[in-house]
Amino acid sequence: MPGEPPEQPSLAAAEPGELDGRTLAGYRLEHVLGRGGMAVVYRAEDLRLGRTVAVKLLAPELARNETFRKRFVRESHIAASLDHPNIVPVYDAGEVEGVLYLAMRYVRGRDLRALLDREGPLTGAQTVRIAVQVASALDAAHARELVHRDVKPGNVLIAEGTDPDHPEHAYLTDFGLTKKSLSLTGLTSVGQFVGTLDYVAPEQISGKPVDGRCDVYSLGCVVFEMLTGGPPYLRDDDLALLWAHLNDPPPDVRERRADLPAGVGAVLERAMAKRPEARYGSCLEFVAELRAAVGEGRAVRGAFREGPSREGRPPLPPAWAWPVFDP
Q1: What predicted TM-score, i.e. pTM, was given to this entire model?
Q2: pLDDT by residue (tens digit) across 57-98?
Q3: From CA 33, how far away is CA 39, in angstroms rounded?
Q4: Three-class DSSP category at 34
Q5: 56 annotated ligand-binding residue
Q6: Where in the chain are the domains?
Q7: Who has greater pLDDT, 42 or 68?
Q8: C-beta separation of 294 from 127 below 8 A
Q9: Active-site annotation, residues
Q10: Backbone angles phi, psi at 267, to 5 degrees
Q11: CB-based burial, 54-79: b 16+ in 10 Å, e otherwise
C-alpha cells in the first residue's frame, strides 16, 4: 500500500546494517560495533533500564543446531555468574526470531588490537599491566571450569584506568562462546573451529581435550605480540601457521626486540611450550614470572582482589562505577 513503511527483513536474513533502529528482546540496536565469522556486535539501548549495552547476535545457523543452543544457554548462565573486575559482565542471553543473542556491558575505549595497530610494540611495564589483568580474569574463569579458548587482542578491551598507577583497565570478553573444560575438544559440536590461528594452542589444533593451560599458551602469544608488535609465528598461509604451532619451537622474542631483558625469552618459551604439562600451571603464575623478568618487581598474587587499600591508595571503585567500550 502507498505510504506504508517497507517491510523489514527477517532477523536471520538481515545484513548487519539493516538492523539499525530495530528493537529486539527489549534492546534498540543503534549501530554495528564489530563483526566476525560467527557474530555481529551492536551498540544498543536497554529500553527497560535506559542504559547503553553491547548486544552480540550469533550467526543464525548456530541456533538451528540443538546441541549448540543448549550449550550456549548453559554456558551463558555460567558466564553471567562470573563476577570479576576484568571480565565484561553478561546481562542477558536468549533467542529471538531464531537468532541467539548476548547482552553485555558496553565498554568505552578500544580493544588491544586497535591499540597495537596504532602504537605498535608496548613497553614492558604496559605489557605487564595489561597481561596481569587478563591473567586474573582467565584464572577466575578456570576456577569455574570455563576455558576461554579464543584469547586474542580483539577480545581484550582497554578502558581508561582509575589513576596514574593504573592508567588502563583491561576487560576480557567473549566468554559466551567458551566450553566447560571437562568436555572440551578443538572442534565445536557444530563443526566450527574455536580459536584464532595466530594464538591457538597445539592441543586445540589436534582436537585433544583442553584445559586452562591452552589459555596460558594463547596469552603467551598475545604477550609476545604486545612486546614485538606481531604474533610469534609469521607464515604465508593458514596451513603453515597451524604446522608452526604444532611443531616449530617458540621464536626468541629478543630476535625481534633486542632491548628486552634476557629472561623474558625463557618465560615466553615456557608459556608457549607445545605440551600443556610443560607450561605454567596458571595464567597468573606466568605473568608473575614475566613481571620479574621484565623488572617490574611487584608481586602479582592478589593484586586485583577487593579489600583494604594498599600503600595508602584508595580501593578500586565498585563494579557499577567501572567505565563502559566504544571503539
Answers
A1: 0.80
A2: 988 888 888 888 887 877 788 778 888 999 999 999 999 988
A3: 11
A4: strand
A5: yes
A6: 16-105, 110-321
A7: 42
A8: yes
A9: 150
A10: -65, -45
A11: bbbbbbbebbebeebbebbeebbebb
